[in-house]
Structure formats: structure tokens, C-alpha cells
Write a structure and sequence with these properties.
176 residues; mainly alpha; 70% helix; elongated
Length: 176
């Protein structure tokens, strides 16, 4: 639902700026779905490389990848209201982006910890969960940090910093 809301909001904001074209909706949809697919492939590749045998379904990973859109939607709406149509640049856009990014990253870090870092104490009474070696646990923790903070920052920045009227990325100063 958040991805559809993001697509519709992005095209609505372009229309309010007087720059709506049907191609903008297609470009926004393609970008959003490409980011979700890249994220899921990255997660699957990471779990394969780290030998993580989880019972997570594909839909669970899609759900985790969709949480970033909520933060991007909030960033776009508040920045648009505060900046009066000037986009997500400026102090308001960056402040809201920083808050929603950190909230999303913290949520993913806490949620995916149970998938990537199984704990033997929380297992079945007979010791059903496998114990993970210290070095393997450290690699999994590093992967979890990389995914939760660095990858999410990149994807959320790409989604929230795109100027829909021209299709070009907006620079840090807020100018095209």
C-alpha cells in the first residue's frame, strides 16, 4: 500500500507544480519497484553468503522493504507543506528525512535481528535452534548494520530526492 501511495503522491506533487506528464508516473513506478527488487535480491544474497537458513517467506521481505516508503511519504508531504512547493531541500526536508530514516533503520535493526542473529537461549527447551559462532555472529551483525543504515539511507534518499518535474536528482543544496 505504501508503494502505491508513494507513486500517487509523487505524481500529485508534480501536478501541483504544474509539471505532470504521464511518463512521470511510469518513471516513479519503475524506480520504486526497481529499488524493492534490488533490496530483496540484496537481502537474499546476503543471507545466502552468510549461510543464514531462515524460514522467512518472500512476502515478509517485501513487507520489510516497504517500510521505507512510509518515511519517504512523510518526508515528501511535510517538506512540500513547509517549503511551499520547493521540494524536499532545506532544513525541513532534511530534518524530517533524518528522523524518518533513523526510525526506519532502528525498526529494521530490531526486527531483522531475530532473523539474522538467532539466539540459543530463546530456542526450544531441547536446544532446537542452532548456535552461531562468534565470528559468524559478527559478520551477520555487520551485514545487519550495513543493510539497516547504509542501504536504507541510499534507497530512501533516492526515493525522496528525485524531482518529478524533470526526472533529475536534486543536489544537496536543493537546486536542479
Amino acid at each position: 500500500m505504501a508503494i502505491v501511495t508513494y507513486i500517487l503522491l509523487s505524481t500529485l506533487l508534480a501536478g501541483l507544480r504544474g509539471a505532470f506528464k504521464p511518463e512521470i508516473m511510469a518513471q516513479t513506478t519503475s524506480t520504486a519497484f526497481l529499488i524493492v527488487v534490488l533490496e530483496i535480491l540484496g537481502l537474499k544474497f546476503g543471507t545466502y553468503i552468510l549461510s543464514i537458513s531462515n524460514d522467512s517467506q518472500l512476502l515478509d521481505l517485501v513487507a520489510y522493504s516497504g517500510y521505507k516508503f512510509v518515511g519517504v511519504i512523510v518526508t515528501l508531504v511535510i517538506a512540500e507543506l513547509v517549503n511551499h512547493g520547493a521540494g524536499t531541500g532545506g532544513w525541513a526536508g532534511w530534518s524530517v528525512f533524518a528522523y524518518t530514516f533513523l526510525a526506519n533503520a532502528f525498526f529494521l535493526l530490531r526486527s531483522l535481528k531475530y532473523v539474522l542473529l538467532p539466539d540459543a537461549a530463546g530456542g526450544a527447551p531441547g536446544g532446537g535452534m542452532q548456535t552461531v559462532a562468534r565470528a559468524q555472529r559478527n559478520r551477520r551483525t555487520q551485514f545487519l548494520f550495513l543493510y539497516s543504515y547504509l542501504v536504507q539511507f541510499l534507497f530512501m534518499w533516492l526515493l525522496s530526492r528525485q524531482d518529478r518535474s524533470s526526472g533529475k536528482a536534486v543536489t544537496v543544496g536543493g537546486k536542479v
